[in-house]
Structure formats: structure tokens, C-alpha cells
Design goal:
Elements: H1 3-8, H2 23-27, E1 32-33, H3 36-47, H4 60-63, H5 67-73, E2 90-96, E3 106-111, E4 114-117, H6 129-132, E5 144-151, E6 160-163, E7 167-170, E8 180-182, E9 185-186, E10 198-205, E11 214-221, E12 225-234, E13 239-249, E14 256-263, E15 265-267, E16 282-283, E17 287-291, E18 297-301, E19 309-316, E20 320-324, E21 345-351, E22 356-363, E23 374-380, E24 390-399, E25 410-418, E26 431-438, E27 452-457, E28 461-469, E29 476-483, E30 490-498, E31 501-502, E32 506-511
Parallel strand pairs: 3-10, 18-32
Antiparallel strand pairs: 1-4, 2-5, 3-4, 5-6, 6-7, 7-8, 8-14, 9-14, 10-11, 11-12, 12-13, 13-24, 14-23, 15-16, 17-18, 17-20, 19-22, 20-21, 21-24, 22-23, 25-26, 26-29, 27-30, 28-29, 30-31, 30-32
Length: about 525
């Protein structure tokens, strides 16, 4: 939606700002009062009106540009940043429309409770030689595809960004982007097309001189739902986003995904199905971690499956969940360009009682590391219905480690391969699973300690289950073989214990026999 669409729903256009305005310039213009209550009421009102789909706003010269063209096009002049000059602790910079980003978003600066639109100008971008001659003399107001924010701690590298549909990303201490979050997921991995809600308007609050966090707001819209969002973003070694959302369904929604995150897993130590690459592992995240309402810690390694898989982890008022990159060893990736070992983990901490539902994990097959194929979110047990407001508050933590970790040992490696022992002639399919645990009470146990591996399988036969401490290492290893015929997946579960109780988190896995060739 551009300003015309906003006016139609009661959001009045206000005098624009084309660069960072001074306080005197702000006082000389009138804007539109803005507040969280107004945003919530606007979202609620929109939900009672028919959905108006945004149209492709790219002129022909922009629509014809390729990936390389877009890189030459999207060179923002930092002296045109919102709040440029370095006096304030944050700056907002903008993305050019084009390539995959067809629909401009409305951007507003909020100062002293008054919102004023930020208007596109070609002067904001330094167009490279590759595209400069193809740009008309009069470009007009194209609008922006999205924005990114930098903090005083590092004016050169992003702190977070919002770009495309309801997607956004943030970094931790490594300043490395990785997986994405979304405002909402609707009907992901069902037998009909997924719906992608859009953040069509943003309001960025001008920070105080001594501010340690930046506050922004967003209006979400889609054929099925509208929403009012507020974000309070605090930078640091872990970037923290406190999210407040109010959702208003237009129609029933079969699968609603709250606090969704999207990542990529192509291959790793447990899944070498697609591994024709010099790099041993290629992934933004290597596992889904869950801290259940009962206090159990669960680790589910990710997979690149043969077909779409949906797993649900039923819970009541979860304490947290996230897609993590636990493996931080560069040698395991050997990628000095993408730096997968530096990719951030993303942890969701629910605020308040989320009730009953399930963390759902969706894994799609991929042969391309540029395509995200992993999705995780909270799916409430109560279906979304029209005329019923849903409210979910939560914190997002972007960084190397989540804010909460098990007091018991964690799974640090999962390996899968041919079963049996060398030289043994196998009578049927046999797979070996080798799990490494580290930390917690295991770190204090001697090699002679009596540790039991508790393993269960949904079908098939388990053989040679054992656990031992690796010589001259803090790692404890569990290994077992699985014999299972047929094509149905096998759900596996394992944890370590001794006479005092559980020593590790619970490892969950779903192994699928490979499909017949051809």
C-alpha cells in the first residue's frame, strides 16, 4: 500500500521528510498523531474491510533489471540516512525497489507523537555505471522496498533489517546475517498455496540522544488477517527484540504460525544426502531446540529430506524454542565467504501464557543453499477465527548462544551411517546412529561411571545400544544400530541417565529410509 491506500483506511498523508530533518524543520510542519492504540484500532478496522492486494509498482525500466543490476542500483548514500550525522545512537537506511521486491512500503518517522512520511528520492542512491544510463532523468517517487538500521557501535554493518513480505533479520556479535524471522506464517506446507502476509507500513520512533534501544511499529495485512506490531530492539553481543502483536483474522486460518523463523539446511554431519561440495557442511542452522512447559530440554537435528516433512512437538505454555547454529567450528564448514560458523541462532522466549499448541518444524528438500527450506513456529491449538483478537508477546534473541541453556548435557553432534561392524555381512538394511553429548553433570563423571543410554524407536529393532566417555575428551558418546524395513519414517528418542536421573537433554530424530531408485 502507498499513501493512497493509507488514506482510504483513515491514515492521512502528512508532509514528507526527504532527509534527516532538524528539530526546527520538524516544528514547522504538521504531521499525523501516532500511537500504539491507534495502530491496533487501525488493524482491527482493516480486518472488517475487504483485502486490497498491492500491485507491482516497478516501472518497466526497473522491472527489467537483473540480480547484478539490482546490486549496482541498491547503493544507498549513508549521508541520506534517517538521523544521519551520528548525534543520535541509530540510523535508518533504505532499500531500493526492484528485483524480488515489487511493492513499496510506507515509512514514517515518529517524533513527539507525530508521524511524518519519509519520501523516496533518487539522490539517496549512488547508481553504479552498470545501470546509471538506464535510469530516466525524472524517476518520481518509487518508494522503498524496506530498511535497515545501524547503531553507533558500528555505523558500517547492519544491526537489523526488514525487507520483503513480513521478513526481518538481525545480527549478533559476529555481525553476520543468517536465518530470518517473519511477522506471521499462514498455511505453511499444506496442500494449497502458502499465504505471505506483508508489513506494508512502518513507523520508526526517533531515538533520544542516550537511547539504548530503538522502537518501531508495523502494520501487517493479508487476505486472511491484519496485525499491529511493535518492536523494541536492543543491540549487543546478542540483539534482543521485544515483540508485541495484536492479530485480527478476516477468515478462519487452518495453520497459523506465531513467531515464525526461516532457515537453510542443505547438508551436515548427520545428513550427507546432498554433499557434492568441497565444504563438509552447509547450513544456517543445525537444530531445533525446545524448552517445554514441563521443563524438558529437547534437541532435534535438522535434515534435508527427500520430501516435505511436518513434525509437531505438542506443548502447553512453552518456555522457549529456536533454530540454533550450535556448531561453531570453522573446520566443519571450510567456507571463508559465507562463514556459516558465524551465523546467528534465533531463540523465541514467549511472554505470558501461550496456552496449548505445538512447535511445528517444517523441512523441505533443497539442492540450493540460497533457498531457505526450514521453517519453525508456534501453532496454537485454538484455531484463528474472524472477530476474535489474538495477542502474542515474545522476545527474540539473535546471537551465538540462546539466553537459556540446559543444566544437563547438550547434544553437540549427530552422525548417521551404515550399521554393523567392519567386515560384517548385513542381512538387511542397518543404520548406525552416533550421538555426542557435552557439558552438564557429564563433565564431572569419570570414564568408569555407569551411564545408560535410553533409546526408543517408533518401529524397527534397536541393537548394540551403548554409551561411554571418549578417551581424553569431555564428550560422552552414545551409539546404536537400527534395523527397519519398509518406507515409513522412524521416530527416534534418546537421552543419557545414571542412578541420579537424566544427565542430558532429549535427542529426537526422524529417520526415513531412502526411496527406491527411480
Amino acid at each position: 500500500m502507498r499513501l493512497l491506500g493509507l488514506a482510504a483506511c483513515g491514515i492521512l498523508p502528512a508532509p514528507p521528510i526527504r532527509a534527516t530533518p532538524t528539530k526546527d524543520k520538524l516544528s514547522q510542519t504538521t504531521g499525523q498523531p501516532f500511537g500504539k492504540d491507534w495502530l491496533r484500532e487501525t488493524a482491527q478496522r482493516l480486518a472488517r474491510e475487504p483485502y486490497i492486494a498491492p500491485t507491482d509498482a516497478r516501472p518497466p525500466w526497473l522491472a527489467a533489471m537483473t540480480w547484478d543490476d539490482y546490486q549496482a542500483l541498491n547503493n544507498f548514500r549513508i549521508d541520506h540516512s534517517l538521523w544521519a550525522g551520528g548525534e543520535l545512537p541509530f540510523q535508518a537506511r533504505f532499500f531500493h525497489l526492484g528485483l524480488y521486491f515489487h511493492h513499496p512500503v510506507n515509512l514514517y518517522e515518529v517524533a513527539d507523537g507525530i508521524a511524518r512520511p519519509v519520501i523516496f528520492s533518487p539522490e539517496m542512491f549512488k547508481y553504479g555505471p552498470r545501470v546509471k544510463d538506464r535510469i530516466p532523468e525524472q524517476v518520481g517517487d518509487l518508494g522503498f522496498a524496506g530498511f535497515r538500521v545501524n547503531s553507533r557501535a558500528d555505523w558500517d554493518r547492519d544491526m537489523f533489517s526488514f525487507l520483503g513480505a513480513s521478513y526481518f533479520r538481525a545480527v549478533g556479535a559476529s555481525k553476520q546475517y543468517g536465518l530470518s524471522a517473519r511477522g506471521l506464517a499462514i498455511n505453511t506446507a499444506m496442500d494449497h498455496p502458502e499465504e505471505f502476509p506483508t508489513f506494508g507500513s512502518f513507523w520508526l520512533e526517533r531515538p533520544a540522544m542516550d537511547a539504548t534501544a530503538l522502537t518501531l511499529h508495523a502494520l501487517l495485512d493479508s487476505p486472511s488477517i491484519t496485525g499491529a506490531y511493535s518492536f523494541v530492539v536492543t543491540p549487543g553481543d546478542t540483539t534482543i527484540m521485544e515483540v508485541e502483536s495484536h492479530l485480527f483474522p478476516r477468515r478462519p486460518i487452518e495453520r497459523l504460525g506465531i513467531a515464525p523463523m526461516t532457515s537453510m539446511y542443505q547438508c551436515g554431519e548427520n545428513d550427507r544426502r546432498i554433499a557434492d561440495d568441497y565444504r563438509p557442511e552447509i547450513h544456517d542452522s543445525d537444530g531445533l531446540a525446545l524448552w517445554s512447559g514441563t521443563g524438558e530440554w529437547i534437541w532435534r537435528p535438522l535434515l534435508n529430506p527427500h520430501y516435505i516433512r511436518v513434525n509437531s512437538f505438542v506443548d502447553d505454555n512453552p518456555r522457549g524454542f529456536g533454530l540454533l547454529q550450535r556448531d561453531r567450528n570453522f573446520d566443519h564448514y571450510q567456507d571463508d565467504g559465507a562463514f556459516y560458523n558465524k551465523r546467528p541462532s534465533l531463540w523465541v522466549e514467549p511472554l505470558g501464557n501461550w496456552g496449548r499448541g505445538a512447535v511445528q518444524l517444517i523441512e523441505l528438500p533443497t539442492a540450493d543453499e540460497t533457498l531457505d527450506n526450514i521453517v519453525a513456529f508456534w501453532n496454537p491449538v485454538e484455531p484463528a477465527q474472524p472477530d476474535r483478537e489474538l495477542a502474542f508477546n515474545y522476545r527474540l534473541y539473535w546471537g551465538a548462544q540462546p539466553p537459556a541453556r540446559p543444566t544437563v548435557a547438550e547434544v553437540v553432534a549427530t552422525r548417521v551411517g551404515i550399521g554393523g561392524v567392519p567386515g560384517e555381512k548385513l542381512a538387511g538394511p542397518l543404520r548406525k546412529f552416533v550421538l555426542d553429548f557435552q557439558g552438564g553433570p557429564l563433565a564431572q563423571l569419570p570414564e568408569t561411571a555407569s551411564v545408560e543410554a535410553v533409546v526408543a524407536a517408533s518401529r524397527g529393532e534397536l541393537r548394540d545400544v551403548a554409551a561411554h566417555r571418549l578417551h581424553e575428551s569431555e564428550l560422552w558418546r552414545c551409539h546404536f544400530d537400527l534395523s527397519a524395513s519398509g518406507s515409513e519414517p522412524v521416530d527416534l528418542r534418546c537421552f543419557l541417565r545414571d542412578a541420579t536421573g537424566a544427565l542430558s537433554e532429549t535427542w529426537l530424530y526422524q529417520w526415513s529410509p531412502p526411496p527406491p531408485r527411480g
